[in-house]
Amino acid sequence: MSDKIRDRLIVALDVESVAEARALIATLGDAVTFYKIGMELAYAPGGFDLARELKAAGKRIFLDLKLHDIGVTVERATRQIAKLGVDFLTVHAFPQTMAAARLGAEASGLKLLAVTVLTSYDDADLKEAGYGLGVADLVQRRAEQARAAKIDGLILSPLELAAIRPIVGPDMLLVTPGVRPAGADKGDQKRVMTPGEAIAAGADHLVVGRPVARAADPRAAAEAIVAEIASA
Ligand SMILES: O=C(O)c1cc(=O)[nH]c(=O)n1[C@@H]1O[C@H](COP(=O)(O)O)[C@@H](O)[C@H]1O
Asked: Ligand 1: which atom is nearest the Cα of residue 188?
């Protein structure tokens, strides 16, 4: 399978230590070309060094830190993260946050992804949090604001892909967690599709954690998802 197809699967290294991450990476070998390092691993001892090391070894790295703070802090934090040389960074899709991150990423190769509405949320969760919009409308509003802020891509669930692609155009990266192979446990994800469905609906990349990391045979699980991507 070509690396172009493999790159569309981003495996989330959602483990608590660099030692566990290394073991998983060794098991996955050349089946996986793109990794996500999220908060639980980044903040573990050696987490950021692992990001640099994997880049140097030729892997692509998505650093999922979901920044959200006052503008000046987000701008400076983004500038520091850009020095790591990773490929993607997440920020929450608030207009001030996105504008500040855009400034911080200036003149670097870092691509910014805006998190629209977390895939563990449904309409009732948004209502409980005080929002007046449901998921579909809030994702759409944030997609428009991300485009205006010249953000490189969006994190959204596969369910919103069909509505959002025409709004943001072909160049914005659409990256979807909330991906579950048929029959897999959903866990805390509320808005999900299978890998094949998400690719067919227009996802550029799929983010998959537990269905690979917690599988009895993680390499076989990753290869099955890559095959589903290739045939979608
Ligand atoms: O930004 C993310 O990557 C993210 C956004 C979102 O809305 N939902 C979501 O699940 N994620 C991440 O995607 C991964 C999904 O993991 P699994 O549910 O185990 O496949 C986790 O690392 C989450 O942190």
From this structure: 18
